[in-house]
Design a protein that fits this description.
41% of the residues lie in helices and 19% in strands. The chain is globular. Helix 2 crosses helix 3 and helix 4 packs antiparallel against helix 8. It has helices at 55-61, 87-100, 114-125, 145-161, 167-174, 177-182, 184-196, 199-210, 239-248, 264-267, 269-282; strands at 2-5, 18-25, 28-35, 40-44, 66-70, 107-112, 130-136, 226-231, 253-257. This is AB hydrolase superfamily protein YdjP.
Length: 285
């Protein structure tokens, strides 16, 4: 394992230890930010971003948890795979990463959007490694035919013209109008993450999402604490979709954040952190 000083310290505690680590995972070099100590909290980013989308959560939870925030295969500083990267492959990468990091306790898996698609696969294949699930702005069903076609078109566009061809156009679907107007730095940070991603990495996961499995009739079998979080103005996975999923999962919690879009943890970090904190406390974690 190669450890790299991240130089990222939260203002609340400048002495809180954070490090970037690199691990050989399933034939690739995978990078993750590790922060704090305590029960493990795994933060899985959305498409086509990196672990940096979780910085407010890392800072908040590192005082009580071992926070693990990886760059998924093809994103951030992790290695790229061309062709197609399935959601199951991402889940297997994460399971292998946890083993390489010697994380023995079951984790709370917190995933946003594509991170939620990966969560279903992790639950299917590695249920014994899960203490709880937090699903942010995501869905359990597979894409429609139109959705599949749109993903494949985006993959082709990025391969031909690079991530700059999609970065700015994605913003209205990622954050609310209110966030665009009142928090312009969020748009800037998102565009920077998207444009830093590799074209092949973007295309490979986009194709993987297009081919993902439908879990909408399986999530009723989840028997661990589960929290659903959604922005009230989310265009991609609107509240009615998230509320329906919550009604399917026995005993799950549902939290809707007002005036934010698909990136609720970035747009309203204080509200999201409080709700996650309350959920973790009530789940004895």
């Amino acid at each position: 394992m190669l450890a790299i000083d991240s130089g990222i310290m939260g203002p609340k505690d400048r002495n809180m230890h954070q490090k970037l680590v690199e691990q050989n995972v399933n034939g690739i070099r995978m990078r993750a930010l590790i922060a704090g100590s305590g029960p493990p909290l795994l933060l899985v980013h959305g498409f086509p971003l990196s672990h940096k989308m979780w910085l407010p959560q890392i800072e908040y939870f590192q005082s009580r948890h071992t926070v693990i925030a990886p760059d998924l295969r093809g994103f951030g500083e992790s290695d790229i795979s061309s062709g197609i990267v399935t959601m199951e492959q991402h889940a297997r990468d994460l399971n292998s990463l946890l083993k390489e990091l010697n994380i023995e306790d079951p984790v709370v898996f917190c995933g946003l959007s594509m991170g939620g698609y990966i969560a279903w696969e992790f639950w299917k294949h590695f249920a014994d490694q899960l203490h709880a699930l937090i699903l942010c702005d995501t869905r359990a069903d597979a894409d429609s035919e139109e959705g599949v076609n749109n993903r494949l078109k985006m993959a082709d566009l990025v391969l031909r013209h690079g991530p700059e061809a999609i970065s700015t156009a994605m913003i209205p679907n990622l954050i609310s109008e209110s966030s665009q107007q009142k928090q312009p730095h969020i748009s800037e940070n998102l565009i920077a993450m998207i444009e830093a991603a590799d074209s092949e990495g973007i295309a490979a996961s986009q194709k993987g999402m297009a081919a993902r499995s439908d879990y909408s009739n399986q999530i009723e079998n989840i028997r661990i604490p589960t929290l659903f979080i959604v922005g009230s103005d989310d265009r991609l996975t609107p509240p009615e979709i998230m509320l329906r999923m919550s009604s399917q999962v026995p005993g799950s919690k549902y939290f809707e954040v007002g005036k934010v879009g698909h990136m609720a943890p970035m747009e309203a970090p204080e509200a999201v952190n409080r709700e996650i904190d309350h959920f973790l406390t009530s789940s004895n974690f």
